[in-house]
Each structure stands twice: as structure tokens, then as C-alpha cells.
């Protein structure tokens, strides 16, 4: 449920991605399908002054920053995706060494400084990095919203299972982006 009493941040996990791994073509295809939802949600969050935080794999580039990661990730398969969802100058960008956006990063510190108590988690892969990020958010007592049309896994089965686990075990709200936007907008004018 989108509540105005909650202070949200939008997390975009691993969407700056080269998709250059076994079955990466499957994940890229499924990621293409969610791009419009992620873009719509990001635009809405920016209009509502909800911070946007990219948390991204650094691909073993330990001196990485946004430009280094983008330079590494762009290829024929990934470029159409990256062009739609790349960070803007006022977005936050953190690199992560492992699956969770919280592990070995400053994400928790940043969320606390922004006075955030609720995270919206989007990205890939739903059954790996999104799931582990949601799990760590749950353990840190954040409210969790994972829109089912804004995460992708290599297969629909994997994605469905991850969403089911996040909903039942982590108490995540998994409604679609439009439902969140509609409810948040209605709450704005009450």
C-alpha cells in the first residue's frame, strides 16, 4: 500500500548490465519488457521528490564509477536497455560487490541520511540480486515494495517464485507500478 506517511526511495538494481553471461539473452529480453514500467516509476518518483538510487554490480572493476561501469556494460544487447534507464545527474549511484544492494555498500547509511523507511526495489535479476536486496531491506526493517512489472529474471518461473517469496516471507507489496502510482496520487490529495 502506498502510504504518504512512509518515506520512500527507489532502488534500481543492476540495470546497467552487459547481459554477457550464459542465458544473458533471456534476461535481456525479459528486461526489455520491464523497461517502460521502470521508466514510468522513476519519472513518477522524481516528480514526487522520491530519491532514485542505482545499486549496480561493478563487474570486478574495483575502481569503478558510473562512467566505468557504463563503458563496460554497453554492447549491442544492452545498449537499448541502458539508453532507456541510465542514471541522470541527480540520481545516486552505488556499486556493489555481491548480490545484495546492502552488502559491502553505503546503501543503508544513505537511506538513513535520506530519512527513508520504505524502499521500492526494481531491476534484475528478480530471483537473485533483487531478492537478496529485498531480504536485506527486510532484515533492516524497511517496508518493501517490489512492483511485479518492474523486475525481471531469466525465466518467468524464477521471477514468479521470487515475487511469491518476497510477498509471503518478506511482507513485500508486489502490485504493479500503475497501482502504486494511482494509490500514491490518491493519498496526495486527501
What does this molecule look like?
This protein has helices at 24-47, 66-73, 79-85, 107-113, 126-139, 156-169, 177-188, and strands at 8-13, 52-57, 92-96, 118-124, 143-145, 151-152. It is α/β, with parallel strands linked by helices and 190 residues long. It has one domain: Rossmann fold (3-Layer(aba) Sandwich), CATH 3.40.50. Strands 1, 2, 3, 4, 5 and 6 form a 6-stranded parallel beta sheet that branches. The two termini are 15 Å apart.
Features:
190 residues; alpha/beta; Rossmann fold; 6 strands; 15% strand
What is the CATH architecture annotation? 3-Layer(aba) Sandwich
Q: Which term fits the overall shape?
A: globular
Count of alpha/pi helices: 7
CATH class: Alpha Beta
**How much helix is in the residues?**
40-55%
- The secondary structure category is alpha/beta
Look at the structure and give the mean pLDDT. Answer: 94
Following the backbone from N to C, one meets helices and strands in this order, namely EHEHHEHEHEEHH
Compute the separation of the termini in Å: 15 Å
Beta content: 15-25%
CATH topology: Rossmann fold
- Largest β-sheet summary: 6 strands, parallel
Q: Write out the CATH superfamily name.
A: Isochorismatase-like
Q: SSE layout and pairings?
A:
Blueprint (H helix, E strand, L loop, with lengths): L7 E6 L10 H24 L4 E6 L8 H8 L5 H7 L6 E5 L10 H7 L4 E7 L1 H14 L3 E3 L5 E2 L3 H14 L7 H12 L2
Helix pairs in contact: 1-3, 5-6
